[in-house]
Automatic annotation (TrEMBL):
<feature type="domain" description="Fructose-1-6-bisphosphatase class 1 C-terminal">
    <location>
        <begin position="198"/>
        <end position="331"/>
    </location>
</feature>
<feature type="binding site">
    <location>
        <position position="113"/>
    </location>
    <ligand>
        <name>Mg(2+) 2</name>
    </ligand>
</feature>
<feature type="binding site">
    <location>
        <position position="208"/>
    </location>
    <ligand>
        <name>substrate</name>
    </ligand>
</feature>
<feature type="binding site">
    <location>
        <position position="115"/>
    </location>
    <ligand>
        <name>Mg(2+) 1</name>
    </ligand>
</feature>
<keyword id="KW-0963">Cytoplasm</keyword>
<feature type="binding site">
    <location>
        <position position="91"/>
    </location>
    <ligand>
        <name>Mg(2+) 1</name>
    </ligand>
</feature>
<comment type="pathway">
    <text>Carbohydrate biosynthesis.</text>
</comment>
<keyword id="KW-0378">Hydrolase</keyword>
<feature type="binding site">
    <location>
        <position position="274"/>
    </location>
    <ligand>
        <name>substrate</name>
    </ligand>
</feature>
<comment type="similarity">
    <text>Belongs to the FBPase class 1 family.</text>
</comment>
<dbReference type="Pfam" id="PF18913">
    <property type="entry name" value="FBPase_C"/>
</dbReference>
<dbReference type="InterPro" id="IPR044015">
    <property type="entry name" value="FBPase_C_dom"/>
</dbReference>
<dbReference type="InterPro" id="IPR000146">
    <property type="entry name" value="FBPase_class-1"/>
</dbReference>
<feature type="binding site">
    <location>
        <begin position="116"/>
        <end position="119"/>
    </location>
    <ligand>
        <name>substrate</name>
    </ligand>
</feature>
<dbReference type="Pfam" id="PF00316">
    <property type="entry name" value="FBPase"/>
</dbReference>
<dbReference type="InterPro" id="IPR028343">
    <property type="entry name" value="FBPtase"/>
</dbReference>
<protein>
    <recommendedName>
        <fullName>Fructose-1,6-bisphosphatase class 1</fullName>
        <ecNumber>3.1.3.11</ecNumber>
    </recommendedName>
</protein>
């Protein structure tokens, strides 16, 4: 089978399906190139002295790892001069980054979590980069936070790169989900997983069970039924996974099905969940829905949520459609 590189795939998408504007194609190529550089740093680890804490904190109040900062800088530097963007927003930065005056400004907004799951870096467990692309509202002034506050339905592209045993880039433009594996010898991403689909049913769930006492009743009910297996109403035994790296969990679900949950819990009623809507929930929900799965906050599709803050959090239930619909129905019945 002839190898299809990411570049060839994107050029064909631009030419045939007409759904990929040249400026967006170039943006994706640039993000992919940045992810290759991040992969190189992640893979060198201790050999490059990039493990451990950066000695700084981010807007979320979390201690930053050296690689969080490195990955963020790589994405900013790769994208600021390309001419596709009006601004960027990152989990690691309180405010959006407007493209400097001396660079050409484009029509897209890029949002990213530069290195999700970074608490796993020092123990050599898979981590990843998550990104989302929106169109910038027209106007000739520098974009503000308000320009980013668009629902997930308005994304024009989304993807992630998982830095695991293989480095894989998974993409959607709203026409299916496609996976590319990094060929380190050639230095290029190669199409290896065309048109990824999530099985509608599953026997695998992912949740951090140590938070169980803090969950709301519908989640207690649903997880209780999963644990009851054949002795309960679901009539089958389930297996559990928890990598504590969302990108790794979502990738597993895309490849073999499953349901991932990070519910709201009672510890902080002001927070609807731990994960962030704009650069974790929305891109992953776009990918999951495009692969035939479902993604809700327990009560509505994540992609329909109208954001009010750039770093707002969201509860997440995503993956195999049958399971997400079940736990969402339990919320509705509550
Ligand atoms: P916990 C990583 O910090 C992350 O943002 C996601 O990648 C992951 O799914 C979740 O948080 C893990 O959270 O509470 O289990 O450490």
């Amino acid at each position: 089978m002839s190898r299809i590189s990411l570049s060839r795939f994107l050029i064909e998408a631009q030419r045939t399906e007409g759904n990929l504007p040249p400026e967006l194609r170039l943006l994706i190529e640039t993000v992919a190139r940045a992810c290759k550089a991040i992969s190189h740093s992640v893979n060198k680890g201790a050999l490059a002295g990039v493990l451990g804490e950066a000695g700084s904190g981010n807007v979320q109040g979390e201690a930053q790892k050296k690689l969080d900062v490195i990955a963020n800088d790589i994405l900013l530097e790769a994208n600021e001069w390309g001419g596709s963007l009006a601004a960027m927003a990152s989990e690691e930065m309180e405010l959006p980054y407007s493209i400097p005056e001396n660079y050409p400004r484009g029509r897209y907004l890029l949002l990213f979590d530069p290195l999700d799951g970074s608490s796993n870096i020092d123990v050599n467990i898979s981590v990843g980069t998550i990104f989302s692309v929106l169109e910038c509202p027209p106007g000739d002034v520098a974009p503000s936070e308000a320009d980013f506050l668009q629902s997930g339905r308005r994304q024009v592209a989304a993807g992630y790169t998982v830095y695991g045993p293989q480095t894989m880039l998974v993409l959607t433009f709203g026409h299916g989900v496609h996976g590319f594996t990094l060929d380190r010898e050639q230095g290029s991403f190669v199409l290896t997983h065309p048109d990824m689909r999530i099985p509608a049913s599953t026997k695998e769930f992912a949740i951090n069970m140590s938070n169980q006492r803090h969950w709301e009743a519908p989640v207690q009910r649903y997880v209780g039924e999963l644990l009851a297996g054949t002795t309960g109403p679901l009539g089958k035994d389930y297996n559990m996974r928890w990598v504590a790296s969302m990108v790794a969990e979502v990738h597993r679900i895309l490849v073999r099905g499953g349901v991932f949950m990070y519910p709201k819990d009672a510890r902080d009623p002001s927070k609807p969940g731990k994960l962030r809507l704009m650069y974790e929930g929305n891109p992953m929900a776009f990918i999951v829905e495009q692969a035939g799965g479902a993604a809700t906050n327990g009560r509505m599709p994540i992609l329909d949520i109208q954001p009010s803050k750039l770093h707002e959090r969201v509860a997440i239930f995503l993956g195999s459609r049958e399971e997400v619909e079940r736990v969402t129905a339990y919320h509705a019945a509550d």
